[in-house]
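Explain this fold:

***
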Amino acid sequence: MGWIADFFRLAWGFLYWNSRKTAYRLRLKRGRGRCPCQHPSDSGRAIETGCAAMIHWNDPARFRRLCPLLQQIDSGAWRCSVNRTEVRPFWSRAFAFYGASVVIVYLVATFSVFAFMRNVGYPVTYPGVLWPPAWEKFTAIRTDFFLNQYRTAAQAGDTQAALMSLSTAYNLDPQNYAAGRQLAQAWQIGQPGLSNQIYRRLLADHPSEAEATAQVWFRALLARGDFREVEKLAVKRINAAPAQSAAWLNAFLFANRRTGDASLRRHLAETPSLPPAARFLLPLADSLQGAPPGRQRTVLISAAAGAGDSLSFFHVCRELLSRGLANETLEWLERRAGLLGPRDVMPLRLDALATLGWTSTLRSEVENLLVTDPDPVVVELLSAHLIRHPDAAVRAMVFPRLDRTPLPSTPASYSAYLSLFCAAGVGEDIERLRWTAARIKAFVQADFRSLDVIGEGLLEGNRRRIENYLPALQPLPLEVTYALFEHYAPAS
């Protein structure tokens, strides 16, 4: 083991003895100084003077790597080959030794890192590990690795491992929008607080994706019944893009009816850049809050006459219907027939006819809607109507028609079947609830065991909170989600 000790003496000696020799040469120029490495008792002449620096070395020959002035004479003894005044440092050897050591250590370290990363599964190359400018790619490589782990675990049904991998990927690269959005969606049921944090971060870090992010977050908040957060998010989006704020205004008003936060409503009304619909509807909500029924009717009739855009008029008609003023709704739909499109008029008319009990006219209009092959949008609107106004006769028209002519296999059809499932549950129609559940399971080609539990909960009516089931029934159309809240948790 002597060579190990000599190696460490060599590593230290390059710095120590070269430094002392350098200092000696500087003192020698001033005419004084004692040689640091020769025996002071010897003559100081070449071949006659021993080396004091090599005394403790196990093999003196190894000392020659540090100082080539050391020579072995014929008798086997080691002597300095120069006179005392010619002793000098060998920094080039020191730099070569230290440089080579650094290179060797670097090569060993990088190869070890390469071997470790390849063993873990990272798709790295040794040149990529060896070359420092390529290290900036490591974050992307590791992120992709954990994203692949997430996909593999998700396909295998290992939810916990999938979430851990996805969380690691996003923590490694917080600027990865896709990973952050997936993680926020994955946590929106089990960890809603963490999900909200990620959504806020996505909005701040990716302004170009703000609207898409806000839409996904809004649906998650609405499904959980978090109306306070829905209000706040809607206000931010209305202020961020007033010209495209119609849907957000509708979301705000829906949530605000449940929170009753008049101060937030008034604060929003003071925003200078509000679109005309907001300037019309926010004061209207103030006028209706707490007013007696007679006063509410007067205010709404005036609003129906004064509404200057389709969103405002549609909202006024909804308010009329929510107060049982169906005749007034039909009258104003006739008076201002050109203000709304067919898609908006249809649900208003159906709800008004159901409220009035005009069953023959209602069934005739539903039959007209089902003359052609069923369309997912029509099915969704009919489902929302059946949630607001459960009617066995109308269900008996809709479900057999879809049994004869199923919806096409598209994502929109999946949402339509979910809507029908909710409509059957609200109507306590067990047979058609099972019929729809079977088609949903066939559509997703999975067992979907929770669907049966959700169906039982829907059949129990107001004894269960609809927020317990909505997160699993996605993507539900907003119209259907709003209708479910109106049925199971109407605003006070």
Remarks:
- The two ends are 88 Å apart (CA to CA).
- The CA atoms of residues 408 and 483 lie 25 Å apart.
